[in-house]
Every structure is written in structure tokens, then in C-alpha cells.
Amino acid sequence: MSRGDPVFAARPTEHRRTTESRETRMATVELTKENFDEIVSGNGFVLIDFWAEWCGPCKQFGPVFERSSDKHDDLVFAKVDTEAQPELAQAFEIQSIPTVMIVRDNIAVFAQPGALPAEALEDVIGQARALDMDEVRASVAESQQSGQAQAEQAQ
What we know:
By secondary structure, this protein is α/β, with parallel strands linked by helices. The protein is built from five helices and eight strands. The chain has a six-stranded mixed β-sheet.
């Protein structure tokens, strides 16, 4: 497993279905190695919170993440419990928790350890929304070609 090969999927931890007068949304989902691919591949914009129950900063960041999910019901907010899903944490080289990652169109466009304040999380979401994904894909392809060329030269 490598960082570029998604191996996770999500299991809804809660669904809220409401009447016309209230919004309809899916609450934060739990990502597991079994549901990662389905959730990430099936959604164009996924925010992931890597966390653990024993982590104090994770507990402080949790409500910030949940409030943000209420504001952005067009995005998928997901959580990876690094204790229950060590393979996912290892695949994404998670060294510190909490770590927030944003995956757009199956490309990790943001990853940062540390509990972000609400304003910083909103700023990151705005920046990720503003990305030109055609440019991002071109940059990824260029990096991959460059890496292949360097590997061939090393042989």
C-alpha cells in the first residue's frame, strides 16, 4: 500500500434524514480498510480526520471537525481511528494525530498534522475547493514521469 493507492472505505456512523423544512445530510463517516475505496472513489471531495480515542488534541479537534461538516453538507467528512485501522494510518504515513487530509478526485491535495482551529479548517476547505484539478492532475503526472526517469537513470 502506498499513499497514492487508496485502500479505505467509509461506513456511515449516522445518517440524518429530515423533512423538507430541515436539511438532509450524511453525518461524518467512519473509514475502514474495507470501505475506503468505495467512499473516496465515490466522492469527489473527502475530508479525513486521522485520530485516536486516547489523543487529547484529537478530542479537542473533533467538535471543530463536526461543526465544519454541518456547514459543508456537499462534502464528505470522514474519520479514521488509527488504533482500529493501523493499516490506513501506515498507508498514509500518519506520524502524528490528529492529522487532517483532503482528497479530491482520488488525489490527496492536503495533509497536515495538528488540531486546526475552526477558521484555519474553513480556510483550507476554501483553498481546496478553489484548486484547478486539471492542473493538479497534470502536476501529479509530471512528478510521476520525473520520478520514473530518475529511477531509470539510477539503474
